[in-house]
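re the bet — no i am not wrong, look at it urself. input seq straight from the record:
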Amino acid sequence: MRRLIQLGAVLTLVLSGVMLVGSFTAADATATQRSKPGVLQAGWFWETAYQQANPPVAAGPLPATEPSGVPDGDFAVAHTSNDASSSKMTALAFDIGTPAPGSFINTFTFSVTVDSSSQATNIGTGAQPIVACLPTQLWSPAVGGDYTGEPAVDCSTKVKPKVKGSTYTFEIPAIAQDWVDDQNVGVALVNDPDNTSTPFQVVFTGPKTVKATMSYTPGTPVPAATTPPGGSLGGSSSVGGTTSSGGSVPPPAMGNAPPAPNVTTSDVGQAPQVAPTSNPQLKPVAKVSAASSLPSRGFWMGAAAFAFLILLMSLVLGDQPQPAGAAGSRLDRVLRGASADTSALASRS
C-alpha cells in the first residue's frame, strides 16, 4: 500500500509539473508574439561637400566626382558640416507583417555592424554620435541617392545605440509602435542633432547583415459606437406655419375666418438648432481571450504540494531497514517490546 501511495504521489507531481509548464507556455504564446523581421527596403543618401559649400548647387558643370568611401552594398552615416545635419544618412524599413490594429509593440531591437574592410572609409575612432529617428514621410530605396530625396526625420524621441565592439544596437519600440498605429515608414540613422562640431563617417555592412527581433501583444480594435435612434431631427420642421428651410406655409382656412397673415422666418426667429451627434474616437485595446476550461495554475500548484506532502510522509513513516532475521514493521516491534516488558513485570510480581 505504501508503495502504491508513493507511486501515485510521484505521478501526481509529474502531471502537475507538466500542466504548469504547459500553462505558462500557452499563456506566453497567446499574450506575446515574437519574430525576426527582415529588411524590407534600405537606402542611404548623400550631400556632397560641394553641395554643402554651394547650397543650392549652382547651375553649371559639377566638379569631379567626390569619392563616397562606401563600398557597393554598404550604407553609411556621416557628419562633415558645421551644423546638426547629416552629410550621409541611412533609412531602413523592416517587414513586420500585419499586426492587428491595437497591437502593442513590447520590444523592437536591431543591430548593424561596422564594415572594417579596407574599402570602407571610416572617419573617427570609437563610438560615433549616431541616433535612430522616425522618418516623417515615405521614401524610395537608393544607393548614394541625392540628399534632396532623403526623408525628413523627427528626432524628438531619438534613440542612442548601445555600442559593443563593431556592433551598434538600437532599441526602438516607440518608433516601431508608430509603424503599427500609422504607416511603416521605417527608421533613419542620422547624426545626433546635438553634435555640430565632431566630424565622422561610419560605414556599415549591407542590409543582409542587419539583425532584428520583435515582440508584440496582439490586439483587436474596439467596435465603433453607433448613433442611438431618434438622435437627429428630420430634414425640415415647421414653427407657426414657417418651415425651417425658410419658406412660408399658410395655415388651413377655418370657416369664414379671415386668412391668417403670412408669417416669415424673420418674424419668429431661427428654428432651434440641434448639435449633431458625434461618435467619440475610441482607442483600440489589447485582445482579451476567453478563459480556459482547464484547471487553473493554483489547482496544479496545490496538487503538486499535496502530492509532495504525501510522498514525504510515506518516506518518513515507512519501514526502516531491519537486521537479518528480523520481521515486522516498526509498530510491530514496538508492540512486541511492550508486551515483553509487561510479561517480565508480571513474572516478578
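see?? The CA atoms of residues 320 and 343 lie 26 Å apart. told u. also The helical segments are 2-31, 49-53, 173-181, 265-268, 297-316, 330-348. so pay up
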